[in-house]
Amino acid sequence: MRRFLKIILFVSYLFLIWSCQKEEFISSKNAKLSFSNDTVLFTVKNPHDETIKIKSISLANGENSNFRLNINGNLINKLSDVEIYGKDSIYIFVEVTLNPNDKKEPFVHQDSVVFLTNGNLQDVDLVAWGQNVHLINGQNESGIIKTQTWTNDKPYLVYNSMLVDSLETLTIEKGTEIYFHKSSSMLVAGNIKVNGTLEEPVIFQGDRLEKMYEDLPGQWGTIVFLEGSNNNEIDFAEIKNAEVGLQIGTLNGIANGLTNPNVLIKNTKISSMSYAGISALRSYIYAYNCLITNCGFYGVSLIIGGIYEFNHCTIANYWSFSNRTEPAVAISNYYNYSSENQEDIYFSGNLEKAIFGNCIIYGDKNGEIGFARDENLDFNYKFINSIMKISYFPDDTTDLNYFENCFFNKNPEFISIYEDENYELDTLSFAKDKGKLEISNNFPLDLNGNNRLEDEQSDLGAFERIEKKEF
User: Fold this and answer.
1) Rounded to an integer, what distance in angstroms lies between the CA atom of residue 74 and that of residue 93?
2) Per residue in 400-452, pLDDT tens?
3) Do 408 and 390 meet the contact criterion of CB atoms below 8 Å apart?
């Protein structure tokens, strides 16, 4: 069956009833129309005091166009002698049908609406982007995922969210692109295996592909791992422009005493989240070679206890969309939930461990690490050979059980924070050669595939600084 992708540009029609009288039309060749620049509402305005008559409105490509018009209530692609009263407007419906093809790459259809008025030729460009996709719709069976494998033959588009069902496995192969429509999420009750590579990472992002949306946060929901979800693996993924990159565990699951989820995250970039890069609730995370940047609240939030280990990760928060109030990393063994409709609910759990080894935790706030502790519960954490930006020195910074050979408020000197968002280390970076080799031996390759053990000294964070050799 042939499929069509329809893009409808919403239009309205403004019509005023005038008394029956002979109209005087403006006839000057200097009289032109003005057009709104809104790509949703296509407005045609007469800015003059006198009535103007448009000799013709038509599509430049005529009958060969993929676009269709509704002009002044007429389903027609060409209309003659259209009158617009002084200071009045008309609005035009534009519809386009994009026929699918056998290509993976996006395709574009272009045309223009041409206006001929008093010898003046004006046009409004029409551009419609399309792409062949696997449509995953949460409102039908395609949104309930049983055990299957997604490949990179063409992108996947998630509408109305989706669910990886309990006891089922979704395998996502290298180079696969997954687009999420506004507010859509991936819910994982079973488990996922993301098998990206350095050359062909798996991409998770919003479905707006225009340049202006490239780094815009909050375009879709999150990837959420529900209670009972186990053995999840994410390797070489890029997750961007959502509300939360990875949501691991939920308050509802904790309230009902369900099994905590666990996720292995490696060689992954998480960026431009309106809330958090990773938000974990009493869960298990093992992560290494990860870059987490530019989130509206937290880069990493570890709440209500759990088991966590991060090695050779760069967590850098230089959020620029608003005034950020929370630290890049937050660690707590409790959470006090309150809402307008019910009394406060106190959630708590033992923090069995939270270990950060050879990491960089930095940003543009005075302090980028926050702790919240219930003294009646376990609160075990340790930072090893890590750069940390702090606004005050807690009493236990000299306690080797919590801080081992850490470097406080030492600027890691990234190559380019704002312009290129390049979080590799500059040649003069303090983070060079500060890593603990016992940790680095377990992760010999950095996020770019470089050998961090080549000079027998490892750098902090996800990237090893490789100096260019002069010959």
Assistant:
1) 10
2) 889 999 999 999 999 999 888 999 999 999 999 999 999 999 999 999 999 99
3) yes
- Sorted by sequence, the CB contacts under 8 Å of residue 213 that are 6+ apart come out as 206, 219, 241
pTM above 0.85, yes or no: no
Greatest extent of the chain over all pairs of C-alpha atoms, in Å: 93
Asked if residues 125 and 136 have their Cβ atoms less than 8 Å apart, the reply is no
- 10 Å Cβ neighbour count for 442? 10
Both ends of the chain: CA-CA distance in Å? Answer: 61
Rounded to 5°, the CA angle 196-201-206 comes to 120
Q: What's phi and psi for 419, nearest 5 deg?
A: -75, -55
Count of beta carbons in the 10 Å neighbourhood of residue 26: 16
Element (H, E) at 422: strand 422-425
For residues 417 and 32, give the distance between their C-alpha atoms in angstroms, rounded to a whole number.
Answer: 47
Distance, CA of 183 to CA of 389 (rounded, Å): 33
What CA–CA distance (Å, rounded) separates 87 from 171?
59
Question: Cβ–Cβ contacts within 10 Å for residue 7, how many?
Answer: 14
CA dihedral sign of residues 235, 295, 188, 180? negative
**Shortest CA distance to 113 belongs to which of 73, 65, 81?**
65
The full DSSP string for 102-123 is: S-SS-EEEEEEEEEEETTEEEE
Residue with tokens 């079973």: 190
Grouped pLDDT means (10 residues each) for the chain, 471 residues:
28 26 62 52 84 93 87 86 91 79 69 90 82 88 96 94 97 97 96 98 92 91 97 98 97 90 98 97 98 98 98 97 95 89 88 98 96 96 96 71 94 92 95 97 98 94 85 51
Torsion of CA 214, 218, 223, 225, to 10 degrees: 150
Location of structure tokens 């960089």: 360
Contact 189, 164 (CB under 8 A): yes
434-445 pLDDT, tens digit per residue, is 999 999 999 999
Helix, coil or strand: residue 169: strand
